[in-house]
Amino acid sequence: MPTISDVAKRSGLSKSTVSRVLNNYPHVSEEKKERVQKAMAELEYTPNPSARKMRGALTTTIGVVVTRIVNPFFSYLVNAIEQVAYEQGYQVVVFQSNEDQEKELSFLQLMQHKQLDGIIMASIENDEEVIETYLAYGPIVFVNEYIQHMNTVPSVRINHIAAAYEGVMHLLNQGHRRIAYCTGGLFEQQGQSDDRNIGYKKALAEKGIEVDPQFVFVNKHTIEDGESVGRAIFQMKEQPTAVFTGSDEVAAGVIAAAHELNQRVPEDLAVVGFDDQPIAKITYPKLTTIKQPVDDMGRLAANLMIEALNGTTPTENETVLETKFVERDTT
Amino acid sequence: MPTISDVAKRSGLSKSTVSRVLNNYPHVSEEKKERVQKAMAELEYTPNPSARKMRGALTTTIGVVVTRIVNPFFSYLVNAIEQVAYEQGYQVVVFQSNEDQEKELSFLQLMQHKQLDGIIMASIENDEEVIETYLAYGPIVFVNEYIQHMNTVPSVRINHIAAAYEGVMHLLNQGHRRIAYCTGGLFEQQGQSDDRNIGYKKALAEKGIEVDPQFVFVNKHTIEDGESVGRAIFQMKEQPTAVFTGSDEVAAGVIAAAHELNQRVPEDLAVVGFDDQPIAKITYPKLTTIKQPVDDMGRLAANLMIEALNGTTPTENETVLETKFVERDTT
DNA sequence: GTTAAATTTGAAACCGATACCAAAAACTTA
DNA sequence: TAAGTTTTTGGTATCGGTTTCAAATTTAAC
């Protein structure tokens, strides 16, 4: 690999001059500039990023942390972030935390040594205090998840409480009284899923209905999870007549279980999904769900990050995007 | 950020000794070792990766190139690779090429300056000669895709010809004679999809059937693509009675289009998918498809890469894994 | 009790870039 | 034409590690 010294030698100039050409500094005569460029071309020279980072240069690399990339919500989110970043000359590297605190921490640490200029967190495993520590090394942006009352980190999210409330209220208004509930997280806990839990509870409460713990399924993420939830529901003596799920995947699994057990959707069980991913249009019947503006979320988060990297103070500290209830055929 | 010099100062020793402790070199007395470790802990010291790379150290980072991460086949593949790599102490960074040659090239270049130890390519946009150039900078492993007769790069793949042949032959044996065909690539071209094309043509040829260009759909990837293919098929005067698709996504889209147009699957149109992703179990009817051992592919590719990085000559240069025809309800 | 060998330690060079500073060259102005 | 600016260029220190080499110390061997 040729180095800057090789280019200097070949062009008969000094490293300093080559560096100036490389970084488009003023005060380089047109003649020498061309000589340098010629030498660089001939040697197929490319600057060594590690050496640059040593001098504190930006890496133009943004990290994105998600729990699992196989979750379509995250892969679409990453895709949107990547699009914007690429346009602005930034690289994106994706990290899967697998919900592991340690792993997440090791990603945050990459900022310390400028391997990453900034980090967009689409999932949060560590505490507020821990994350705050790393703000010293570069900007952090929350997307999808957030930490309540933490206003040192800009966030892009939806109103999970309202979204869940709307979904459950729709079912209630249709006359359902026994409504099961699936979440990717826990039922009694802080954070995102907590917000959806609140929406669920609030809707039920307004109709004077108590939460039946038997109807609550926690830590459900995948199609398989949804199938097992469906099977569990259909073998209860007193079955729920509807289920509000945490994702389209889980919902699709529930529907598949219904087919298997010869149960009708929505007659025997109404189903509401979450996300409005492409999959929502290929279940049969088509899935009623809550549309998250995943592309907008990704784009906004990326823009917030790039603004922060450019030293602009963020326009908005907390952006809450609208969800949309999409009624199809499962309710 | 504390540096190695800070640790040296605090422990009253030299940088060299600290470096030796850091890298587990022999010939460091137990006493000094402890002093260094104590100082490192107190300062919360972490070594600067850029500085290390400058001296040619490995980065323990593996790059994976895919076309689009939102394609579940790729996200599952990446997931499997990541698992193995993480166990072995390697980081994985994922790149989306979006089928852009330039972009792919810029990833390959990262190896030149040891930003990446090696690259696993799950998609290939550049020519053999170009890729060969980068072998000088680190190992490359092909997975899923490959380049024929290129034995300088180990590859993990399936037999696309046989897989497509088996799927199409299944339809032929059921009596279908007008069989449509979807591919993610082109119909007349080199590479992966070309292999599937060969299998399709071969099966038809054996039954003495000519390819009807009208029945061939190219560059189809998504559920939406599948829906449009379905709509196109159902409005033909002389419709195909079956369709062999390039992915479960496309197949699911075709099935969705059938529902929309009140056509029955498989009675009016039989459908065969490819991949056997989770989505194959939630279409209605459940999708007949060809199972790719995506986890095995990812794991094997990762292991090949790690072997190569450890200097071991690869056990196998070309690993061809078995696919499995999974008959469900759409045929 | 020497001498040889092995272990332990530190000083200094080095990796490849950037940044500061001073010297040289070119250009203004009086 | 001399003095003062401005532009252009190169030398050298620096970032934070690793590596080489030699010196100092300890251990082993005779």
From TrEMBL, chains A, B:
A GO molecular function held by the record: transcription cis-regulatory region binding
Transmembrane segments: none
Residue span(s) of domain HTH lacI-type: 2-56
Family annotation (Pfam families): LacI, Peripla_BP_3
Keywords (A to Z) from UniProt: DNA-binding, Transcription, Transcription regulation
InterPro entries for this protein: HTH_LacI, LacI/GalR-like_sensor, Lambda_DNA-bd_dom_sf, Peripla_BP_I
Top-level taxon of the source organism: Bacteria
PANTHER family attached to this UniProt entry: LACI-RELATED TRANSCRIPTIONAL REPRESSOR, NTD BIOSYNTHESIS OPERON REGULATOR NTDR
Name of this protein: LacI family transcriptional regulator
